[in-house]
Amino acid sequence: MSKFANIGASTVFLFLATLLIVSRFATETFHTPLIFFGFALLITLGIVTTMAGKKSLGQSLIALALFAAITLIWAFATIPFYDPGFDGYAYHLSAIWDIGEGWNPFFSPHNNIWVDSYPNGYWVLQSYIVSLTGLLMSGQALIVGLMAAVALLSYGFFLDSCAENIPRFPRIAALIFSGILVANPVVIGQLLTHYVDAPLYLFGVALALFLLSDAFRENRLARLSALCCIILMVNTKTAALYYTPLIVFAGFVAELTIQRADRDLLKRGLLWIRKKGLLFAFTFILGVTVIGFKPYVTNILDHGQLLYPSVSKIMKGNEPENVIPLSAPMKFVYGIFAQTDHSEWPIDAPIELKIPGTFQLSEFKYLRFDTRRGGFGPFFSLALLAAIAAFTIRRLAHRKHSRAISTRAEDGLALFGALMILASMFFPESWWARYVPFTWLSAILFIAAFIKLNHAKKWDFAARVLAFVALLSFLGCILASGLGAVRESRLLYARTEMIEKISLFPEVKLLMFYDPPAYRDFQSTSTQDGLAVWTRLLADRGLKTEISHERNQFDCDMAGYLNGGIYWCVIIDEMQ
Q: How far is CA 440 from CA 79, 180, 375, in A?
């Protein structure tokens, strides 16, 4: 089963990266998605069979079939639901639809400044789902397929690398491990959205596991899959420019630790750089400058900035007031030890700190797609501290018990986790969970290192108790994120249920209840496509709409909030 898990997961990430690459050769006329699917499928299967043997062909096909089935089932099962997020209506959906209808970002600018300036690789992949299904909101289903692929990969990784110390029910332990890994509250909260923080996390976790797999035992297919993850990451979100090199560096440190039989550290480091590091660096540069030519190179050519618009403009109005003057490490402390709280206006309401393990019942309803206070859930600070403490106690007991016992692999996993914590801690917006999603991975890697260590009698009971506390804390966070996501979706469903009732009127007005940011340049004039997006979504449901820029909801006989800053309005007098 672990062999299928490893080959199957590799096949999925190879296919997605290949599909993105071949898509860059499209012209600005509509091409059937099946052409690019066919090319990507043939290339992927050819690579996998070359590297893993002809017997792997059947496993690859099964994995891709399951990936497609899971994605499509979710797409059709969620037809009644709209995106609970905000940015989906502002720019994600318009980007996906325009790409699916023939717009090639490499050939022309987009009128929406965010679409024109942000990485578009993940939108490209989502556009295939929309084009094939004809469902306007189906692009969000890709995240469920990615969750399945990463769960499969982590299941195989745990069985191969960590399960030797679990004599009873190792497969169940592997299922728990993979389930917790993919059920990051950031991912759960964004399941029905088109946000890209969750995909970035899943691509990054896959990169980490492929690097670790190759570190434990040389694996060319895992290494190639890691290269694919690099390409996918940097074309999903600009934060990948920060996280991708650091994940690779963590893999480098972990491999030096795991393979430290040769004491010549410098020699092994230079060998890794020559054998792997240069290839990773080249792929990163290729992913940014060629495959990611738009927006990275075009931002510099057109605006003189790699990140455009500036981060200060993007973050204005999004930070809780008491973290604005803090350093990044202190913001991280506030984010981890925060009480989970609402994300409604005013966003500048302060973050409240709390003692790890304490909670209020209200914390089980507030987690959602972009929670700005305690976004990993009410027990995450306890989970992180308990995971680190459990590993530390068992590691110290091993050191005192016998210096002859090798702990290379365990130390490698723990170092990887520690470096991910440091990477998250120094990210500029480290207080916001969706911007530092790999903190969740860090805690789980410490638990994996704890499990991989052989049991030592001294203090082991305390270590086991702490590990169990960490496990329960993870589950509590996942429960809270699930309840929060269900609550958010129910609220949106109740609001959009009115669509069936207002469809009885011959015309419905759509209006924006706030003034969007006035970012303009010589290419793009819009920052908010919500009116156009909802016009199309409602037309798909049979509603005739008119965009109004003059009225507000108080002039309406009937009115209601849709989402993304848009109101619907019915004025009965105008229909008589």
A: 30, 9, 11
Residue type, 71: T
380: its two tokens = 């995450």
Please spell the DSSP secondary structure of 368-395, one letter per residue: -TT-SSSTT-TTHHHHHHHHHHHHHHHH
Buried b (16+ CB within 10 A) or exposed e, 484-517: bbebbbeebeeebeebeebeebeebbbbbeeeee
The yes-or-no verdict on residue 251 having pLDDT over 80 is yes
Task: Tell me if residue 433 falls in helix, strand or coil.
Answer: helix
**Measured distance CA(212)–CA(250) in Å, rounded:** 9
pLDDT at 553: 60
Q: How do strand 508-512 and strand 545-547 relate by DSSP bridges? A: parallel
| Averaged pLDDT for residues 369-374 | 93
Contact 508, 568 (CB under 8 A): yes
Q: Alpha-carbon torsion 359, 365, 371, 377, what sign? A: positive
Return phi, psi of residue 32, to 5°: -60, 135
Lowest-confidence pick of 361-370, 428-437, 488-497:
488-497
Contact 96, 81 (CB under 8 A): no
pLDDT in tens, 264-301: 888 889 999 999 999 999 999 999 999 999 999 999 99
Residue for token pair 């890691």: 226
Res. 316: pLDDT tops 80: no
SS (H, E, C) 120-178: CHHHHHHHHHHHHHCCCCHHHHHHHHHHHHHHHHHHHHHHHHCHHHCCCCHHHHHHHHH
- Give the C-alpha separation, 441 to 405, whole Å: 27
Tokens representing 501 are 């009732």
Among 14, 11, 41, residue whose Cα is nearest residue 228? 14
Residue 322 is given by DSSP the state G
Q: Are 566 and 530 in contact (CB under 8 A)?
A: yes
What 8-state DSSP symbol labels residue 47?
Answer: H
Q: Which amino acid would we find at residue 515?
A: D
Instruction: Note the pTM of the prediction, 2 decimals.
Output: 0.96
In one letter, which amino acid is 110? H
Residue 550: other Cβ atoms inside 10 A? 7
